[in-house]
Amino acid sequence: MNREKITYLLVTAAGCLLACAIIGVPNSYGLFYEPLAAIMNTGRGQATLHVSIAGLVTGFTTPLVAKATKKINCRLIIIFGMACLLIAGIGTAFSKSLVLVNFLSVFRGLGLACLGPVMITMITGNWFLSRRGTITGLIMSFSGIMGSLFTPFLARHLQEKGFTSSYLLCVGVMIALTLPILFVPFKPQQAGMEPYRSDKEDKKKNYDGYLAYKPFQKTFIILVTASFAVITVTTLTSYLPSFAESIGNDPLSAASLLSASMVGNVVFKFLIGLLIDYLGVAISAVVFMSICLAGLLMIVLLPLSPSLLFVAGILYGACYAVNKVAVPLNIRIIYGDEAYGDAFSMLSLMENLGRSAVITGIGFLYDHTGTYIYSFIIAIAGCVISSAIIYLVQTRVTKAPIHKEG
């Protein structure tokens, strides 16, 4: 195996570890909601407010991070992000003040903006021209592997060691897994290489885009709407343990539902990458949102069967495949490589605004109704709306003549 092939493999491995750190570990964050609410002597809505604040900060600063990569060394951005996560993590672990936790969430949001999905997809997009669906799916699937393995371990650690020790553990794991990406150049040309191409067929693939990116363009606004609909589905993840406990399951059994969703996360992210490379984004999005819809219906209709609930959790995990693989690739295909950073970072801003509102809204909705059923109904609608929009927009745009003037 020559040096270039080894380098491509190392870049992929570093991307997988970063996805584990910044997406996989936070997927277990819902386990902290109830302990934090108990420590702060408050409701779940208030206890999750810091997550919403972090999401808002991440959303508003992600476009700035995308622009910064054009002027600032990528390693400096990554180091700054790691420092922010350390400050937020250590402070929150020892805090007894809800005000301080909310303040520290600003640093958490900055850290996630510097290291999150936009950074991951920009680096891998720069390094790989061929098999982007497969590579993106593979990298993002590792966040699910991390979540499925780490969640039950964290649940046990939380029961045995308590909130502070468990929170510090999460911070340490995130920092350790982020370190390898420091050694990856932002672009292959910085290492004297070219982006990976596999064959002639892939060289014909068009990544120049079909539309010129404009943030207030009708098509982009519709895509933001589809992305928000997906967010109403994926945001339920952190509440899965609380939902399972609310219907009578013990804490470890409740954590297994979250683990099941992480299993689905792994399997379906990898499968959607393969399917996209053969059938395209539009059909793949519909297929996997339909699988997720089946899982949601099983969770709502068959919540007291542990075995069926576990299967339902796996099926529900298909939503991650659409959110983290299909949506970014859809943006890259429609707007092209050159505008991808600007377009996807703006979409991420809107996603984080939506996620912040939804995650806190679910908490307050539960506080007022005593049930999560209304949130599940909204998510079911989100499955239908998102898949329909992605399919219609993507097929319409890519079948039309290229009109870069927008």
Describe the protein in words.
The chain has helices at 3-24, 33-40, 44-47, 49-68, 74-94, 98-115, 117-127, 132-161, 163-178, 200-203, 218-234, 240-246, 251-279, 281-301, 306-316, 318-369, 373-399. It is globular. The protein contains 17 helices and no strands. Helices cover 78% and strands 0% of the residues. The N and C termini lie far apart (44 Å). The mean pLDDT is 85.
Q: Find the structural class using helix and strand composition.
A: mainly alpha
Main β-sheet, in a few words? none
Helix content: over 70%
What shape does the CA trace take?
globular
Short account of what is shown:
The protein is 78% helix and 0% strand.
SSE blueprint and pairings:
Elements: H1 3-24, H2 33-40, H3 44-47, H4 49-68, H5 74-94, H6 98-115, H7 117-127, H8 132-161, H9 163-178, H10 200-203, H11 218-234, H12 240-246, H13 251-279, H14 281-301, H15 306-316, H16 318-369, H17 373-399
Which short descriptors sum up this protein?
mainly alpha, single chain, 406 residues, globular
